[in-house]
Amino acid sequence: MVLDDLGSSLRGTLDDLRGKSRISEEDIEDIVKEIQRSLLQADVDVGLVQDLSDGIKSRALDEEPPAGTTPRDWVLRIVYEELVDLVGESTEIPLENQTIMLAGLYGSGKTTTAAKMAWWFSKKGLRPAVIQTDTDRPGAYDQSKQMADNAEVEFYGDEDSNDPVEIAREGLAATEDADVRIVDTAGRDGLNEELIDQIERIGAEVQPDRNLLVIDAAMGQSAKDQAQEFEDAIGIDGVAITKLDGTAKGGGALAAVDQTDSTIAFLGTGETVKDIERFEPSGFISRLLGMGDLKQLTERVERAMEETGEEEGDWEPEDMMEGSFTLKDMRKQMEAMNNMGPLDQVMDMIPGLGGGLMDQLPDDAMDVTQERMRDFEVIMDSMTEEELENPRVVGQSRTERIARGSGKPEERIRELLQQHKQMDQMLNQFQGMGEGDMERMMQQMQQ
Ligand code: GDP
């Protein structure tokens, strides 16, 4: 994730402010240095970093904190606001009939992003279609078709044609009934005239409502020049940053956004069609700073619940913060989280779990694999209400009975109980975080 370690290092520096009644220039210098270090490591443009530093310094020293605000909270708030300002607004993507064209270099993640976006639109209740015009890369057609299938969305491509403009034209006609047409284009290892000429011709045919530039988060400052060329050729309305799961960078993409005066539309966080998020500046920065993003989590939970067809779909993330955690809760959450994506990513979004706490957990606490999950479900089916509500009653003889009933080894049953215990302990730690901390984070997120 961009600026991955910013949250923890910054929290450390901010913690030094605890108990102080006023902030000195030196305190601010330390904090700004910490932020600069993280941003530069993430490849953020030096000029942008300088502007941000100046903004934080002058505000922290000149502005008066509102009554009742501690210096620590005040500085955190300024840093948060300035960072939100740095990443900018989210690209406007109206939920209506439209054509979106994707541009970018070879391997940036265009084809993947096209299918992901289609999936995203379909979850918003629209009918999307992917049009694949890349006739240069041999595997593009199959890959695109496969991903569109995975996303359960309409697909148009023509593996026998080598004329992208013609494919685009026919694709538009063939997907007339779709609400949103996402046109994927060819890439190259580097920008060249042929690529630019081709995308200009496709653009002229398709007349897209918006063009999105797809950029690999690991790309450095050269993203800026690349963005400028696409901007000159077709005009860039927004950027999709991909592979945020695999890098601590992302600064190149920010530079591209700045260069083209555009904004960020989507974030790609994995290889499956579901690994996409709409970019939300405040949520993004909250998460980065380890404050979590309840809004995104709630969205994911809702979506997962819809897919699970859960009758008692009244599980709220907030429930995890209170009351006792039974095996029934665990089963519900396993189902929901299975639909939401990797558990550790979900956990990252919960305030307070983002930084540090996760690292204290044994690795396999989060490692609920599909296979184990299925076994766990079968095992739970063989348990009584009493056992599900209160797993502590399950001793050796009950374990033997459940093993016979479920056809699963006793070891698996102990594993399930162990897993439950770990999650329960984790939630207890979470509850122990302190009301004040939690409330403050929530308030900040809502502002
Ligand atoms: P294109 O050449 O621009 O169409 O790029 P592709 O869509 O084929 O993506 C290139 C590679 O990056 C593929 O192996 C994808 O699976 C992978 N990829 C794309 N987006 C992401 C992402 O968000 N996370 C990860 N981990 N891999 C991604």
Automatic annotation (TrEMBL):
An example molecular function term from Gene Ontology annotations: GTPase activity
Stored CDD domains: SRP54_G
Domain (SRP54-type proteins GTP-binding): residue spans on this chain: 97-290
GO cellular component, one term: signal recognition particle
Domain Signal recognition particle SRP54 helical bundle: 2-87
GO biological process: SRP-dependent cotranslational protein targeting to membrane
EC class name: hydrolase
Catalytic reactions on record: GTP + H2O = GDP + phosphate + H(+)
Residues that hold GTP according to the record: 104-111, 184-188, 242-245
Bias-annotated ranges (Basic and acidic residues): 398-409
Residue stretches making up the AAA+ ATPase domain: 96-246
Entry remark concerning the domains of this protein: Composed of three domains: the N-terminal N domain, which is responsible for interactions with the ribosome, the central G domain, which binds GTP, and the C-terminal M domain, which binds the RNA and the signal sequence of the RNC.
Family of this protein: Belongs to the GTP-binding SRP family. SRP54 subfamily.
Protein name: Signal recognition particle 54 kDa protein
Organism whose genome encodes this protein: Halomicrobium mukohataei (strain ATCC 700874 / DSM 12286 / JCM 9738 / NCIMB 13541)
